[in-house]
Design a protein that fits this description.
The protein is elongated, with a radius of gyration of 34 Å. It starts with a strand and ends in a 13-residue tail after the last helix. A hairpin with a 2-residue loop joins strand 22 and strand 23. Helix 6 runs antiparallel to helix 7. By secondary structure, the protein is of the alpha+beta class. Strands 16-28-27-26-17-24-25 form a 7-stranded mixed beta sheet, sandwiched between helices. Strands 1, 2, 3, 4, 5 and 6 form a 6-stranded antiparallel beta sheet that branches. It folds into 5 domains: 74 residues, Alpha-Beta Plaits (2-Layer Sandwich); 233 residues, no CATH class; 81 residues, Calcium-transporting ATPase, cytoplasmic transduction domain A, CATH 2.70.150; 127 residues, 3-Layer(aba) Sandwich (Rossmann fold), CATH 3.40.50.1000; 142 residues, Calcium-transporting ATPase, cytoplasmic domain N (3-Layer(aba) Sandwich), CATH 3.40.1110.10.
């Protein structure tokens, strides 16, 4: 259980279909002090609002025959006892389903001898009646509760009335067969629903429940295996090669490659060194890591992700709300129609009421069969199973969707706006050009914005700058050191001595006894001579939004290094895929100057660039796009893009698990957990496939009912055929919706 005095939730087992929802919500809503309640059979979560004691609600729910899953004072939504290993194990685990099995055994003589061979005997009839009573007791009990509660007509009421009517007209075998088929159909639907419900559990089942904590005392190191629940922020844990990382943390010792696919959906290995952030459930590679815990188990990334996915599954999409409202009025109307069908033809058109005429069924039988046809199970289940499967699939591929409404809205998007910095680009500086005054390739040194000339003199300049920046934490220093290490130049010079920062201007230090200064172009303009060509090149760099640092050694100008926020490796590919799947309007919004913005826009392939925008002007730009194109999505890093993300029909934050922002998961409609923009076209395909599946399911449900309605009215449809058709349709739409758990199998496949 969780929440406050006025709002809390419970996790239930044994509730799987629309009837269970109606019964649970009806019973709990009738309790004094309950203002509202809502139950989702796919998550098993019952949410209650009102000043009522938890224990009172638990007692009432358990009296209905459902189980509460709890541990202490917390709802355990992801853990259920008696997890079924197969359908028959599922059937045997509760009394109601065991009664259905007994009913199936008792109805077999009637099916074989009465229905197939046409032989009738009192013992066969008694066996059929016993099958009806045995399998029908739980159904009739639920129907009685529903009627007593407020004359709520649900599927159990319809089936009970139809079966009693069949008994009254002497159709004993058919009455028993209808009830047994219905009971088995409900059980099968519950089994499949439970399979769908457990899909999100795969996110947490891989998280280790124990961790190796490291204690250092008097120079001795002790390793102790403890439960992850006991770990606190600041504890040190050891993760050996090949093990899963049990907690969110920061590497304090060691280096390794880590597979973060369970969280981010990325298949590639990510290098982790001292200072790197790591996520619980990631798989460690070849090196041992000592990690400082940064979040407790209940608040780590995987726990928050699972909680948000569960909450998202409980939020109904507009399509689901429409179907629920339709079913609420549809069922009573069909009951009234069944009564009209049973009564009007015999009263006014001299048609048979009880007995078959001319080989067709009497009108009472047709009315009873119509009650069976009216069952709304397939219709009600057609939408939520699709949305929940899609949300679970997205989560497994590193995408957090906050609810079905956002998935539905995304399927209608006609235009997408992108922030530049941190979204289409890396959001941090990288070395894009190294220009030594002694470069042997002068024709290239000023014309290589994304790949410096590979000559010894330029490499030497980079190594020299790296030695001075070795102990700095400035982003420019990080970029220079990273580039030097990438070219294996990090150890060419020893780290500088006597390093002194010139705040706002640069840094200086002694390398191999020589004084080296690294400074901004402005600092060199004021204090240090540099050639005119290099000065003009630095000015051109500035127009292109590059940052230029210049290097001087013992009073002599050595050259310059240009840095820029580089384009993400996946940006252009993602944009091309979006165009391919039909998104024709892809707009980049940025505060950069027009020239630099258009250069980046051309490189990534967006269709339009809007530059020199303040954050509030990005909001205006999104509004203009909405007026022109209708539904618009905005993609940003979740920091300074918050107003524009909120304004768009769908706000999508990038890098929620790693580089973007700690608030991205909480504030956006959708969060891409990794920084791979190829997740975006995958998500769009998934949203469209979800809506296609919903339309297919709803259409299939309605067409099946219409077909059997016509058959029943013409006298060709039997009650047991109607039950079989309705249960078959329910199972079919459920399985069709669950296909979204597997399509596509990887984040970048086609749907």
């Amino acid at each position: 259980m969780e929440g406050s005095e006025n709002e809390f939730s419970l996790s239930l087992t044994g509730a799987d279909c629309a009837c269970d929802v109606s019964e649970i919500e009806g019973e709990v809503s009738s309790m004094e002090g309950v203002r509202s309640c809502e139950f989702n059979p796919f998550t098993g979560r019952l949410r209650i609002v009102g000043p009522i004691q938890h224990r009172d609600v638990i007692t009432r729910v358990e009296k209905l025959g459902y189980n509460i899953v709890e541990q202490g004072d917390k709802t355990i939504g992801l853990q259920e006892p008696h997890k079924p290993t197969g359908f028959f194990h599922y059937m045997w685990r509760s009394l109601d389903t065991r009664l259905a099995i007994l009913g199936a055994v008792l109805i077999l003589p009637g099916v074989i001898f009465s229905e197939i061979l046409g032989q009738h005997h009192i013992i066969i009839d008694l066996a059929s009646i016993a099958a009806y009573i045995t399998a029908g007791f739980p159904i009739a009990r639920s129907a009685w509760r529903s009627l007593r509660r407020g004359f709520d007509i649900n599927i159990n009421v319809l089936m009970t009335i139809a079966a009693i009517g069949a008994l009254l007209i002497g159709a004993y075998t058919e009455a028993g067969m209808v009830i047994v088929l219905f009971a088995f159909g409900e059980a099968l639907e519950g089994y499949v629903t439970e399979k769908a419900r457990t899909s999100i559990k795969s996110l947490v089942e891989v998280v280790p429940q124990r961790a190796t904590i490291v204690h250092e005392h008097d120079g001795h190191v002790r390793e102790i295996l403890v439960s992850v629940e006991t770990l606190q922020v600041g504890n040190l844990i050891l993760v050996k090669p090949g093990e899963r990382i049990p907690m969110d943390g920061r590497v304090v010792k060691g280096a390794s490659s880590v597979n973060q696919a369970p969280i981010t959906g990325e298949g590639r290995l990510v290098e982790k060194i001292v200072g790197s952030e790591v996520l619980a459930s990631s798989i460690n590679g070849e090196g041992a890591l000592t990690i400082e815990v940064t979040r407790i188990a209940a608040n780590n990334t995987i726990s928050r992700l699972v909680k948000m996915v569960e909450e998202a599954q409980e939020k109904k999409a507009p399509a689901q709300r429409f179907v629920d409202r339709f079913a609420r009025y549809y069922t009573p109307i069909v009951v009234l129609l069944a009564a009209v069908v049973a009564v009007i033809p015999p009263l006014f058109f001299d048609q048979p009421f009880l007995n078959p005429a001319s080989g067709s069924f009497g009108w009472l039988y047709r009315g009873l069969a119509l009650l069976v046809v009216a069952c709304p199970c397939a219709l009600v289940i057609s939408t939520p199973v699709s949305i929940i499967s899609a949300i679970s699939n997205a989560a497994r591929n590193g995408i957090l969707v906050k609810g079905g409404a956002h998935l539905e809205a995304l399927s209608r998007v006609e235009a997408i706006a992108f922030d530049k910095t941190g979204t289409l680009t890396e959001g941090r500086p990288s070395v894009v050009s190294v220009r030594s005054v002694n470069c042997r390739m002068p024709d290239l040194k000023s014309h290589s914005p994304y790949g410096s000339p590979l000559c010894e003199e330029c490499d030497d300049l980079l190594a020299l700058a790296s030695a001075v920046e070795a102990h700095s934490e400035h982003p420019v220093a990080d970029a220079i050191i990273h580039e030097a290490n990438k070219r294996n130049l990090g150890l060419k010079y020893p780290a500088a001595e006597g390093v002194r920062a010139m705040v706002g201007h640069g840094v200086m230090g002694r390398v191999d006894g020589q004084q080296v200064t690294i400074g901004s172009h402005n600092h060199f303009d004021r204090f240090i001579f540099h050639p005119e060509d290099d000065c003009l090149q630095a000015q051109e760099d500035a127009l292109n939004s590059y940052t230029t640092v210049m290097i001087e050694k013992d009073g002599e100008f050595q050259g310059a290094i240009a840095l820029a926020d580089t384009i993400r490796a996946t940006s252009r590919e993602a944009i091309e895929i979006l165009k391919h799947i039909g998104i024709k309007t892809l707009v980049m919004l940025t505060g950069d100057n027009r020239s630099a913005a258009e250069t980046i826009g051309a490189q990534v392939g967006v269709t339009e660039v809007r530059s020199e925008l303040m954050p509030e002007e990005k909001v205006v730009a999104v509004n203009h796009l909405q007026k022109e194109y209708g539904h618009v999505a905005m993609v940003g890093d979740g920091i300074n893009d918050a107003p524009a993300l909120a304004t768009a029909d769908i706000g999508i934050a990038i890098g929620g698990a790693l580089g973007g922002t700690a608030q991205a998961m909480e504030t956006s409609d959708i969060t891409l957990m990794s920084e791979d923009l190829r997740q975006l076209p995958f998500l769009l395909r998934l949203s469209r496939a979800t809506m296609r599946t919903i339309r297919t399911n709803v259409g299939l449900s309605l067409l099946t009912k219409l077909a059997f309605l016509i058959l029943v009215l013409l006298g060709f449809g039997t009650m047991w055929m109607a039950v079989l058709a309705d249960m078959g349709t329910s199972l079919l739409v459920t399985l069709n919706g669950m296909r979204l758990l597997r399509r596509p199998t990887s984040g970048y496949s086609n749907l």
